[in-house]
Amino acid sequence: MGAAAGKRKPVSSLLPIWLLCLVCASSAQPYIGVNYGEVADNLPPPEETARLLKSTAISKVRLYGVDAGLIRALAGSNISVVVGVANGDIPSLAADPAAASRWLAANVLPFVPATAISVVAVGNEVLESGDASLAAALLPAMQNLRAAAAAAGDGAAGVRFSTVNTMGVMAQSDPPSTGAFHPDIAPQLQGILGFLSKTGAPFMINPYPWFAYQSDPRPDTLAFCLFQPNAGRVDAGSKIKYTNMFDAQLDAVKSAMVRAGYGNVDIVVAETGWPTRGDAGEPGASVENARAYVSNLVAHLRSGAGTPLMPGKPVETYLFALYDEDLKPGPTSERSFGLYHTDLSMAYDAGLASAAGAAGGAPAAGQPRASGGWCVARNGASDAELQADLDYACAQVGVDCGAIQPGGACFEPNTVRAHAAYAMNQLYQAAGRHPWNCDFRASATLTSDNPSYGACVYTGGGQ
Fold it and tell me: Residues with Cβ < 8 Å from 198, sequence gap 6 or more?
Protein backbone atom coordinates (compact mmCIF):
# COMPACT_ATOMS: atom_id res chain seq x y z
CA MET A 1 0.00 0.00 0.00
CA GLY A 2 1.34 3.44 -0.88
CA ALA A 3 1.61 6.21 1.67
CA ALA A 4 -0.94 8.15 -0.32
CA ALA A 5 -3.56 5.67 0.84
CA GLY A 6 -3.17 6.94 4.38
CA LYS A 7 -4.19 10.31 5.74
CA ARG A 8 -2.34 13.14 4.01
CA LYS A 9 -2.34 16.85 4.67
CA PRO A 10 -4.78 18.33 2.10
CA VAL A 11 -3.19 20.44 -0.61
CA SER A 12 -6.04 20.74 -3.11
CA SER A 13 -7.13 24.05 -1.59
CA LEU A 14 -3.89 25.56 -2.88
CA LEU A 15 -4.45 24.43 -6.45
CA PRO A 16 -6.19 27.57 -7.74
CA ILE A 17 -3.23 29.71 -6.64
CA TRP A 18 -0.80 27.39 -8.42
CA LEU A 19 -2.89 27.34 -11.57
CA LEU A 20 -3.08 31.12 -11.53
CA CYS A 21 0.72 31.22 -11.29
CA LEU A 22 1.01 28.87 -14.26
CA VAL A 23 -1.33 31.03 -16.32
CA CYS A 24 0.73 34.14 -15.60
CA ALA A 25 4.08 32.35 -15.92
CA SER A 26 4.50 33.54 -19.49
CA SER A 27 4.41 37.20 -18.46
CA ALA A 28 6.76 39.13 -16.19
CA GLN A 29 6.93 37.83 -12.66
CA PRO A 30 7.35 40.49 -9.95
CA TYR A 31 9.68 38.28 -7.91
CA ILE A 32 12.04 36.98 -10.65
CA GLY A 33 15.11 39.06 -11.49
CA VAL A 34 18.49 38.49 -13.09
CA ASN A 35 22.03 39.75 -12.54
CA TYR A 36 23.71 41.49 -15.46
CA GLY A 37 27.46 41.04 -15.07
CA GLU A 38 29.77 42.82 -17.47
CA VAL A 39 33.17 41.17 -16.94
CA ALA A 40 33.15 40.15 -20.61
CA ASP A 41 34.27 41.41 -24.01
CA ASN A 42 31.48 39.93 -26.12
CA LEU A 43 28.23 41.31 -24.67
CA PRO A 44 25.37 42.19 -27.03
CA PRO A 45 24.41 45.86 -27.49
CA PRO A 46 22.14 47.19 -24.70
CA GLU A 47 19.13 47.39 -27.04
CA GLU A 48 19.40 43.67 -27.85
CA THR A 49 19.74 42.76 -24.19
CA ALA A 50 16.68 44.88 -23.39
CA ARG A 51 14.66 43.10 -26.10
CA LEU A 52 15.76 39.74 -24.74
CA LEU A 53 14.73 40.68 -21.20
CA LYS A 54 11.34 41.92 -22.39
CA SER A 55 10.73 38.52 -24.02
CA THR A 56 11.04 36.70 -20.69
CA ALA A 57 9.26 36.43 -17.35
CA ILE A 58 12.11 38.44 -15.79
CA SER A 59 10.90 41.71 -14.30
CA LYS A 60 14.03 42.95 -12.50
CA VAL A 61 17.68 43.44 -13.40
CA ARG A 62 20.55 43.95 -11.00
CA LEU A 63 23.59 45.85 -12.26
CA TYR A 64 26.89 45.82 -10.41
CA GLY A 65 27.43 49.45 -11.32
CA VAL A 66 25.54 51.91 -13.51
CA ASP A 67 25.17 51.01 -17.21
CA ALA A 68 23.53 54.06 -18.77
CA GLY A 69 22.93 52.33 -22.11
CA LEU A 70 21.00 49.40 -20.65
CA ILE A 71 19.11 51.57 -18.16
CA ARG A 72 17.92 53.82 -21.00
CA ALA A 73 17.08 50.81 -23.17
CA LEU A 74 14.72 49.62 -20.43
CA ALA A 75 12.87 52.95 -20.24
CA GLY A 76 9.12 52.58 -20.51
CA SER A 77 9.25 48.84 -19.77
CA ASN A 78 7.95 47.01 -16.71
CA ILE A 79 11.50 45.95 -15.80
CA SER A 80 12.98 47.63 -12.73
CA VAL A 81 16.68 48.08 -12.12
CA VAL A 82 19.03 47.73 -9.14
CA VAL A 83 22.13 49.88 -9.60
CA GLY A 84 25.34 49.48 -7.65
CA VAL A 85 27.77 51.78 -5.89
CA ALA A 86 31.38 50.65 -6.29
CA ASN A 87 33.14 49.69 -3.06
CA GLY A 88 35.83 52.26 -3.82
CA ASP A 89 33.26 55.08 -3.78
CA ILE A 90 31.95 54.29 -0.30
CA PRO A 91 34.50 56.27 1.78
CA SER A 92 33.88 59.54 -0.07
CA LEU A 93 30.10 59.08 0.02
CA ALA A 94 30.29 58.44 3.76
CA ALA A 95 32.50 61.44 4.46
CA ASP A 96 30.73 64.06 2.35
CA PRO A 97 26.96 64.51 1.91
CA ALA A 98 27.68 66.64 -1.14
CA ALA A 99 29.49 63.70 -2.75
CA ALA A 100 26.37 61.58 -2.17
CA SER A 101 24.24 64.25 -3.85
CA ARG A 102 26.59 64.35 -6.83
CA TRP A 103 26.57 60.54 -7.15
CA LEU A 104 22.79 60.48 -7.12
CA ALA A 105 22.58 63.33 -9.65
CA ALA A 106 24.90 61.48 -12.04
CA ASN A 107 23.68 57.89 -11.60
CA VAL A 108 19.99 57.91 -10.67
CA LEU A 109 18.22 61.19 -11.42
CA PRO A 110 18.90 61.18 -15.21
CA PHE A 111 17.04 57.88 -15.59
CA VAL A 112 13.96 58.19 -13.37
CA PRO A 113 11.04 57.96 -13.71
CA ALA A 114 11.40 56.74 -17.33
CA THR A 115 13.21 53.67 -15.99
CA ALA A 116 12.23 52.35 -12.57
CA ILE A 117 15.27 52.18 -10.29
CA SER A 118 14.11 50.19 -7.28
CA VAL A 119 17.25 49.84 -5.17
CA VAL A 120 20.72 51.29 -4.97
CA ALA A 121 23.03 48.55 -3.68
CA VAL A 122 25.74 50.40 -1.81
CA GLY A 123 28.82 48.23 -2.23
CA ASN A 124 29.06 44.52 -2.86
CA GLU A 125 30.04 42.04 -0.12
CA VAL A 126 31.63 44.85 1.92
CA LEU A 127 31.16 43.25 5.34
CA GLU A 128 33.00 40.12 4.17
CA SER A 129 35.86 42.06 2.57
CA GLY A 130 38.04 42.09 5.68
CA ASP A 131 38.42 45.87 5.35
CA ALA A 132 37.28 47.26 8.72
CA SER A 133 37.42 50.91 7.64
CA LEU A 134 35.33 50.19 4.54
CA ALA A 135 32.79 48.28 6.62
CA ALA A 136 32.60 51.21 9.07
CA ALA A 137 31.89 53.63 6.22
CA LEU A 138 29.08 51.55 4.74
CA LEU A 139 26.17 52.74 6.88
CA PRO A 140 27.11 56.45 6.72
CA ALA A 141 27.30 56.16 2.91
CA MET A 142 23.84 54.58 2.80
CA GLN A 143 22.47 57.30 5.08
CA ASN A 144 23.95 60.13 3.02
CA LEU A 145 22.63 58.68 -0.23
CA ARG A 146 19.14 58.30 1.18
CA ALA A 147 19.20 61.87 2.49
CA ALA A 148 20.24 63.04 -0.96
CA ALA A 149 17.36 61.10 -2.53
CA ALA A 150 14.89 62.64 -0.09
CA ALA A 151 16.20 66.10 -0.94
CA ALA A 152 15.97 65.40 -4.68
CA GLY A 153 12.19 65.05 -4.47
CA ASP A 154 9.75 62.84 -6.37
CA GLY A 155 12.18 61.50 -8.95
CA ALA A 156 14.14 59.48 -6.42
CA ALA A 157 11.57 59.23 -3.63
CA GLY A 158 10.82 55.56 -4.23
CA VAL A 159 14.43 54.41 -4.44
CA ARG A 160 15.61 52.28 -1.51
CA PHE A 161 19.19 51.86 -0.33
CA SER A 162 20.71 48.58 0.81
CA THR A 163 23.90 46.52 0.44
CA VAL A 164 24.62 42.99 -0.77
CA ASN A 165 26.03 40.28 1.50
CA THR A 166 27.19 36.70 1.01
CA MET A 167 26.35 33.82 3.30
CA GLY A 168 29.77 34.58 4.78
CA VAL A 169 28.05 36.98 7.20
CA MET A 170 26.66 33.90 8.94
CA ALA A 171 28.51 32.34 11.85
CA GLN A 172 25.96 29.53 12.01
CA SER A 173 23.41 28.35 9.45
CA ASP A 174 22.84 24.63 9.96
CA PRO A 175 20.25 23.81 11.10
CA PRO A 176 18.30 26.91 10.05
CA SER A 177 16.86 27.55 13.52
CA THR A 178 20.39 28.20 14.85
CA GLY A 179 21.11 30.91 12.25
CA ALA A 180 23.30 33.69 13.66
CA PHE A 181 25.50 36.45 12.28
CA HIS A 182 29.25 36.56 12.88
CA PRO A 183 29.97 38.42 16.12
CA ASP A 184 32.82 40.37 14.53
CA ILE A 185 30.44 42.13 12.11
CA ALA A 186 27.39 42.16 14.39
CA PRO A 187 27.83 45.83 15.38
CA GLN A 188 27.85 47.01 11.75
CA LEU A 189 24.98 44.69 10.86
CA GLN A 190 22.91 45.91 13.78
CA GLY A 191 23.14 49.47 12.53
CA ILE A 192 22.48 48.48 8.92
CA LEU A 193 19.45 46.38 9.86
CA GLY A 194 18.09 49.29 11.86
CA PHE A 195 18.48 51.53 8.80
CA LEU A 196 16.77 48.96 6.54
CA SER A 197 13.91 48.55 9.01
CA LYS A 198 13.37 52.31 9.29
CA THR A 199 13.46 52.92 5.53
CA GLY A 200 11.61 49.81 4.32
CA ALA A 201 14.62 48.55 2.36
CA PRO A 202 15.45 44.82 2.06
CA PHE A 203 18.33 42.79 3.45
CA MET A 204 20.12 41.47 0.34
CA ILE A 205 21.87 38.10 0.54
CA ASN A 206 23.52 35.64 -1.88
CA PRO A 207 22.54 32.03 -1.03
CA TYR A 208 24.22 29.47 -3.30
CA PRO A 209 23.24 25.81 -2.85
CA TRP A 210 25.96 25.20 -5.47
CA PHE A 211 28.63 26.07 -2.90
CA ALA A 212 26.91 23.97 -0.25
CA TYR A 213 27.12 20.99 -2.60
CA GLN A 214 30.81 21.66 -3.25
CA SER A 215 31.48 21.25 0.47
CA ASP A 216 29.43 18.01 0.66
CA PRO A 217 29.33 16.37 -2.80
CA ARG A 218 27.08 13.40 -2.05
CA PRO A 219 24.08 12.30 -4.18
CA ASP A 220 21.54 13.07 -1.48
CA THR A 221 23.03 16.54 -1.01
CA LEU A 222 22.80 17.15 -4.77
CA ALA A 223 19.12 16.19 -4.78
CA PHE A 224 18.53 18.46 -1.76
CA CYS A 225 20.26 21.36 -3.54
CA LEU A 226 18.46 20.84 -6.88
CA PHE A 227 14.90 20.66 -5.46
CA GLN A 228 14.76 17.02 -6.54
CA PRO A 229 13.12 14.17 -4.59
CA ASN A 230 15.02 13.54 -1.37
CA ALA A 231 14.45 12.33 2.18
CA GLY A 232 14.53 15.87 3.53
CA ARG A 233 16.37 17.21 6.57
CA VAL A 234 14.68 17.84 9.90
CA ASP A 235 15.73 20.87 11.93
CA ALA A 236 16.03 19.46 15.45
CA GLY A 237 15.32 22.87 16.95
CA SER A 238 12.22 23.91 15.01
CA LYS A 239 11.12 20.36 14.04
CA ILE A 240 10.63 21.68 10.49
CA LYS A 241 11.46 19.26 7.68
CA TYR A 242 13.30 20.99 4.83
CA THR A 243 13.17 19.53 1.33
CA ASN A 244 15.62 21.91 -0.37
CA MET A 245 18.78 23.86 0.46
CA PHE A 246 17.48 27.20 -0.82
CA ASP A 247 14.72 27.35 1.80
CA ALA A 248 17.10 26.14 4.50
CA GLN A 249 19.66 28.84 3.72
CA LEU A 250 17.05 31.62 3.62
CA ASP A 251 15.46 30.49 6.87
CA ALA A 252 18.89 30.48 8.53
CA VAL A 253 19.24 34.14 7.51
CA LYS A 254 15.72 34.83 8.77
CA SER A 255 16.59 33.22 12.12
CA ALA A 256 19.70 35.39 12.40
CA MET A 257 17.67 38.52 11.66
CA VAL A 258 15.11 37.58 14.30
CA ARG A 259 17.95 37.07 16.80
CA ALA A 260 19.26 40.52 15.92
CA GLY A 261 15.81 42.00 16.58
CA TYR A 262 14.93 42.75 12.95
CA GLY A 263 12.75 39.89 11.79
CA ASN A 264 10.45 42.46 10.15
CA VAL A 265 12.97 43.31 7.41
CA ASP A 266 12.28 41.66 4.06
CA ILE A 267 14.91 39.40 2.51
CA VAL A 268 15.88 39.72 -1.16
CA VAL A 269 18.05 37.11 -2.86
CA ALA A 270 20.57 39.27 -4.71
CA GLU A 271 22.30 36.30 -6.38
CA THR A 272 21.78 32.59 -6.78
CA GLY A 273 22.58 30.21 -9.61
CA TRP A 274 24.33 27.07 -10.81
CA PRO A 275 27.19 26.76 -13.34
CA THR A 276 26.90 24.84 -16.61
CA ARG A 277 30.61 23.97 -16.67
CA GLY A 278 33.38 23.50 -14.17
CA ASP A 279 36.88 22.19 -13.65
CA ALA A 280 37.74 18.62 -12.64
CA GLY A 281 37.55 19.59 -8.98
CA GLU A 282 34.07 21.12 -9.28
CA PRO A 283 31.57 18.25 -9.07
CA GLY A 284 28.05 18.88 -10.29
CA ALA A 285 28.79 21.71 -12.72
CA SER A 286 26.74 20.74 -15.78
CA VAL A 287 24.00 22.01 -18.06
CA GLU A 288 21.60 19.39 -16.71
CA ASN A 289 22.15 20.39 -13.08
CA ALA A 290 21.98 24.11 -13.91
CA ARG A 291 18.69 23.52 -15.70
CA ALA A 292 17.36 21.48 -12.78
CA TYR A 293 18.34 24.09 -10.17
CA VAL A 294 17.08 27.18 -11.96
CA SER A 295 13.90 25.67 -13.44
CA ASN A 296 12.95 24.07 -10.12
CA LEU A 297 13.73 27.29 -8.26
CA VAL A 298 11.56 29.27 -10.67
CA ALA A 299 8.73 26.75 -10.21
CA HIS A 300 9.19 27.01 -6.43
CA LEU A 301 8.92 30.80 -6.58
CA ARG A 302 5.87 30.64 -8.83
CA SER A 303 4.13 28.30 -6.42
CA GLY A 304 3.90 31.11 -3.87
CA ALA A 305 4.83 28.72 -1.08
CA GLY A 306 7.66 30.84 0.31
CA THR A 307 9.85 29.17 2.93
CA PRO A 308 8.79 27.48 6.18
CA LEU A 309 9.66 30.63 8.18
CA MET A 310 8.37 33.01 5.49
CA PRO A 311 5.30 31.21 4.14
CA GLY A 312 2.77 32.38 1.63
CA LYS A 313 4.81 34.59 -0.69
CA PRO A 314 7.79 34.11 -2.98
CA VAL A 315 11.09 35.72 -2.02
CA GLU A 316 12.26 38.29 -4.58
CA THR A 317 15.15 36.49 -6.29
CA TYR A 318 17.80 37.62 -8.78
CA LEU A 319 19.21 34.74 -10.80
CA PHE A 320 22.92 34.72 -11.57
CA ALA A 321 23.45 35.52 -14.36
CA LEU A 322 22.04 36.71 -17.67
CA TYR A 323 25.21 35.90 -19.67
CA ASP A 324 28.45 34.02 -19.13
CA GLU A 325 31.31 36.41 -18.32
CA ASP A 326 34.35 35.28 -20.29
CA LEU A 327 36.86 37.58 -18.57
CA LYS A 328 36.13 36.59 -14.98
CA PRO A 329 39.15 35.13 -13.17
CA GLY A 330 39.12 31.93 -11.16
CA PRO A 331 37.83 28.44 -11.95
CA THR A 332 35.81 27.62 -15.06
CA SER A 333 32.56 27.72 -13.09
CA GLU A 334 33.00 31.47 -12.50
CA ARG A 335 32.64 32.05 -16.26
CA SER A 336 29.74 29.63 -16.73
CA PHE A 337 26.61 30.82 -14.91
CA GLY A 338 24.82 32.36 -17.90
CA LEU A 339 21.16 31.67 -18.61
CA TYR A 340 21.80 32.85 -22.17
CA HIS A 341 24.75 32.84 -24.52
CA THR A 342 25.89 36.20 -25.80
CA ASP A 343 24.41 35.31 -29.22
CA LEU A 344 21.07 35.52 -27.36
CA SER A 345 20.38 31.78 -27.54
CA MET A 346 19.47 29.92 -24.36
CA ALA A 347 22.19 28.09 -22.47
CA TYR A 348 19.28 25.91 -21.28
CA ASP A 349 15.53 26.29 -20.96
CA ALA A 350 14.64 27.30 -17.39
CA GLY A 351 11.02 28.08 -18.25
CA LEU A 352 11.61 31.85 -18.35
CA ALA A 353 10.68 32.57 -21.95
CA SER A 354 7.38 34.38 -22.45
CA ALA A 355 4.52 33.03 -24.51
CA ALA A 356 5.18 35.79 -27.04
CA GLY A 357 8.44 34.13 -28.03
CA ALA A 358 12.04 35.00 -27.67
CA ALA A 359 12.15 38.29 -29.61
CA GLY A 360 15.80 37.87 -30.35
CA GLY A 361 16.48 34.93 -28.03
CA ALA A 362 15.81 31.35 -29.05
CA PRO A 363 16.42 27.98 -27.47
CA ALA A 364 19.88 26.65 -28.11
CA ALA A 365 20.17 23.80 -30.57
CA GLY A 366 19.18 20.54 -28.95
CA GLN A 367 17.47 22.15 -25.95
CA PRO A 368 14.31 20.27 -24.95
CA ARG A 369 10.97 22.02 -25.07
CA ALA A 370 7.72 21.37 -23.24
CA SER A 371 6.63 17.87 -24.06
CA GLY A 372 2.95 17.30 -23.36
CA GLY A 373 1.88 13.70 -22.86
CA TRP A 374 1.96 12.06 -19.45
CA CYS A 375 4.59 11.19 -16.84
CA VAL A 376 4.40 7.70 -15.34
CA ALA A 377 6.50 5.29 -13.28
CA ARG A 378 9.34 3.65 -15.19
CA ASN A 379 9.43 -0.13 -15.55
CA GLY A 380 12.14 -1.42 -13.26
CA ALA A 381 11.84 1.34 -10.64
CA SER A 382 11.69 -0.20 -7.17
CA ASP A 383 8.82 0.26 -4.73
CA ALA A 384 11.22 2.06 -2.39
CA GLU A 385 12.14 4.58 -5.11
CA LEU A 386 8.52 5.06 -6.09
CA GLN A 387 7.39 5.47 -2.49
CA ALA A 388 9.93 8.28 -2.02
CA ASP A 389 8.77 9.91 -5.27
CA LEU A 390 5.13 9.53 -4.26
CA ASP A 391 5.70 11.20 -0.90
CA TYR A 392 7.72 13.98 -2.52
CA ALA A 393 5.23 14.74 -5.30
CA CYS A 394 2.20 14.83 -3.02
CA ALA A 395 3.97 17.20 -0.62
CA GLN A 396 4.50 19.87 -3.28
CA VAL A 397 2.27 22.92 -3.39
CA GLY A 398 -0.26 22.68 -6.21
CA VAL A 399 -0.21 18.87 -6.45
CA ASP A 400 -3.61 17.36 -5.60
CA CYS A 401 -3.34 13.71 -4.56
CA GLY A 402 -6.96 13.46 -3.45
CA ALA A 403 -7.79 11.00 -6.23
CA ILE A 404 -5.45 8.37 -4.74
CA GLN A 405 -6.85 8.68 -1.22
CA PRO A 406 -9.31 5.98 -0.05
CA GLY A 407 -12.55 6.44 -1.98
CA GLY A 408 -10.84 8.49 -4.68
CA ALA A 409 -11.28 7.73 -8.38
CA CYS A 410 -7.67 6.47 -8.68
CA PHE A 411 -7.29 4.71 -5.31
CA GLU A 412 -7.59 1.31 -6.99
CA PRO A 413 -5.37 -0.48 -7.73
CA ASN A 414 -4.00 0.23 -4.25
CA THR A 415 -0.31 -0.18 -5.09
CA VAL A 416 2.76 2.01 -4.70
CA ARG A 417 3.40 1.91 -8.45
CA ALA A 418 -0.11 3.03 -9.42
CA HIS A 419 -0.26 5.79 -6.81
CA ALA A 420 3.25 7.01 -7.63
CA ALA A 421 2.43 7.19 -11.35
CA TYR A 422 -0.60 9.37 -10.65
CA ALA A 423 1.34 11.69 -8.30
CA MET A 424 4.31 11.95 -10.65
CA ASN A 425 2.04 13.00 -13.48
CA GLN A 426 0.29 15.57 -11.30
CA LEU A 427 3.62 17.20 -10.46
CA TYR A 428 4.85 17.01 -14.06
CA GLN A 429 1.74 18.74 -15.39
CA ALA A 430 1.81 21.47 -12.71
CA ALA A 431 5.54 22.18 -13.00
CA GLY A 432 5.48 23.02 -16.70
CA ARG A 433 5.56 19.73 -18.67
CA HIS A 434 9.26 19.90 -19.50
CA PRO A 435 11.24 16.66 -19.82
CA TRP A 436 13.21 17.37 -16.65
CA ASN A 437 9.94 17.65 -14.69
CA CYS A 438 9.53 13.91 -15.34
CA ASP A 439 12.91 12.67 -14.17
CA PHE A 440 12.50 11.78 -10.48
CA ARG A 441 16.10 10.52 -10.51
CA ALA A 442 15.34 8.17 -13.44
CA SER A 443 12.36 6.43 -11.80
CA ALA A 444 9.82 8.03 -14.18
CA THR A 445 9.34 8.27 -17.91
CA LEU A 446 7.23 10.19 -20.44
CA THR A 447 4.57 8.44 -22.48
CA SER A 448 2.20 9.43 -25.27
CA ASP A 449 -0.25 6.68 -24.23
CA ASN A 450 -3.02 7.99 -22.00
CA PRO A 451 -2.76 6.07 -18.70
CA SER A 452 -6.31 7.02 -17.63
CA TYR A 453 -8.67 4.15 -16.85
CA GLY A 454 -12.32 3.96 -15.86
CA ALA A 455 -13.18 6.98 -13.72
CA CYS A 456 -9.49 7.67 -13.05
CA VAL A 457 -8.43 10.52 -15.32
CA TYR A 458 -4.78 11.53 -15.69
CA THR A 459 -4.33 15.22 -16.48
CA GLY A 460 -2.33 15.81 -19.64
CA GLY A 461 -2.23 15.10 -23.31
CA GLY A 462 -1.42 17.50 -26.11
CA GLN A 463 -0.30 21.07 -25.53
Answer: none
Report which of 118, 123, 125, 29 is spatially closest to residue 352, judged by C-alpha positions. Answer: 29
- 161 and 120 within one domain: yes
Q: Average pLDDT of the chain?
A: 88
pLDDT the model gives residue 279: 96
Distance CA 96, CA 103 (A): 11
How far from chain centre, in Å, is Cα 266?
A: 15
Q: What CATH number does residue 131 fall under? A: 3.20.20.80
Domain enclosing residue 236, as ranges: 32-355
**Contacts with 187 (C-beta within 8 Å, 6 or more apart), sequence order:** none
Same structural domain, 295 and 396: no
Residue 453 resides in a domain: no
Instruction: Identify whether residues 350 and 379 lie together within a single domain.
Output: no
306 shares its domain with 429? no
**Residue 22: what pLDDT?**
37
Residues 147-152, mean pLDDT to the nearest whole number? 95
CA 144 to each of CA 89, 104, 235: distance values in angstroms, whole numbers, following the listed order: 13, 10, 41
pTM, two decimals, is 0.77
β-strand partners of 29: 58
From residue 198, how far is each of 50, 135, 174, 266 by CA, in Å? Answer: 34, 20, 29, 12
List, in sequence order, every residue forming a beta bridge with 289; answer none if it has no partner.
Answer: none
Phi, psi of 195 (to 5 degrees): -65, -45
Question: Which residues belong to the active site?
Answer: 125, 271
